[in-house]
């Protein structure tokens, strides 16, 4: 018997070489706010969500897989895919695909300045 959870994804962690630079990149590109937490074994920057218990993730000082290898994390764009891809590139990321259309919307692949594979996702309106 298989399960059907409300949400299969419960958390994501994005490793960055420099936490302040990572916060600046993701804050500018995706318009994310962050809560810094330095109470654990290493500092993290948690992505703020509308609901305090919302599904999101955090940045942490770590070793990225690099070169777009490893898992791809898809993040919701705050406006349009084109505007986000432009910010992504201007802030030091590399856009590596054209927009790809799928039934729920469109997305585009890129690598962040640390080489993490990132999908920029724009949901269909309506």
Keywords:
four-stranded mixed sheet, globular, five-stranded mixed sheet, single chain, 2 helices, alpha+beta, 126 residues, 2,3-Dihydroxybiphenyl 1,2-Dioxygenase, domain 1, 33% strand
Folded structure, characterized:
The protein is of the alpha+beta class. It has one domain: 2,3-Dihydroxybiphenyl 1,2-Dioxygenase, domain 1 (Roll), CATH 3.10.180. Helix content is 17%, strand content 33%. It has helices at 19-30, 81-90; strands at residues 12-16, 34-37, 44-47, 57-61, 72-76, 94-95, 100-102, 105-111, 117-123. Helix 1 (19-30) runs antiparallel to helix 2. The longest helix is centred in the N-terminal third of the chain and has 12 residues, at 19-30. The radius of gyration is 15 Å and the shape is globular. The mean pLDDT is 92.
């Amino acid at each position: 018997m298989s399960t059907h959870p409300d949400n299969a994804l419960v958390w994501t962690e994005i490793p960055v070489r420099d936490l302040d630079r990572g916060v600046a990149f993701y804050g500018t590109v995706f318009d994310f706010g962050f809560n810094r937490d330095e109470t654990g074994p290493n500092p993290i920057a948690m992505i703020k969500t509308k609901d305090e218990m919302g599904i999101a993730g955090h940045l942490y000082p770590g070793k990225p897989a690099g070169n777009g290898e490893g898992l791809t994390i898809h993040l919701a764009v705050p406006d349009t895919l084109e505007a986000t891809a432009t910010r992504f590139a201007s802030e030091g990321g590399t856009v590596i695909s054209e927009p790809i259309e799928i039934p729920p919307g469109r997305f585009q692949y890129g690598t962040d300045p640390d080489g993490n594979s990132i999908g920029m996702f724009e949901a269909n309106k309506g």
